[in-house]
Amino acid sequence: MLALVAIYLTNPDKEVTQEPSIEETVSKEGLKLKDIHYTHDNPEKGFKWILDAKEVKYSEDRSSVTFHDFKLRLEPEKNPWFKLTGKKGTYSEQSGDINLWENLKGFSENGYKFFSDHILINEKAGHAKTDKPVKIVGPFFSVEGKGLFVDFKKKTVKIFSNVTTTIKKEVLI
Asked: How far apart are CA 149 and CA 152, in angstroms?
């Protein structure tokens, strides 16, 4: 419990709203918590995210976080929210990188679904990218390919190679 208070006092713009089970370790490796709900909100960056994870490990200097078996809700300013689930992730406070791996499944407020094995989201730059295969399913189409770049500010999505697009029949009639 003392660790939660210390986290809150040193980062007042972040919110820890669920008490983790006290299987914590403070050592040279950092702080380890189980079953955590964590909110990261910085209006200056125009990006808010909410993380629920079975296990979270903070580096000793608290500049990076590693998490496992997660649900992540991204809320870019002036854009629809997006939820992702996966097996492993990291966050670097310095770079603003949120790196996610393994069996990623996502869906957005406006009806889009996303599938891949890796994505790198940079909250500072407002973009996401991967060089892995991706699949995006929308209300009237699906697109598969390799490599992806999403610009949240410009609201653009690019898939780089081996692209296959399927348009649902109802749209063509």
From this structure: 10
The token duo for 9 is: 């006092």
Residue 96: phi, psi to the nearest 5?
80, 10
List the structure tokens of 136: 């995006």
pLDDT tens digits along 33-77: 899 898 888 777 677 889 899 999 988 887 888 999 999 998 877
DSSP 29: T
Q: Which residues pair with 141 in a beta bridge?
A: 167
Interatomic CA distance for residues 123 and 106, integer angstroms: 17
> Model pTM?
0.74
Backbone angles phi, psi at 128, to 5 degrees: -135, 150
Domains and CATH numbers, the chain: 2-172 (2.60.450.10)
Indicate the burial class of 61 (C-beta count within 10 angstroms; 0-12, 13-18, 19 or more): exposed
Characterise 120 by phi-psi region: left (phi > 0), alpha (psi -120 to 50), beta (else).
Answer: beta
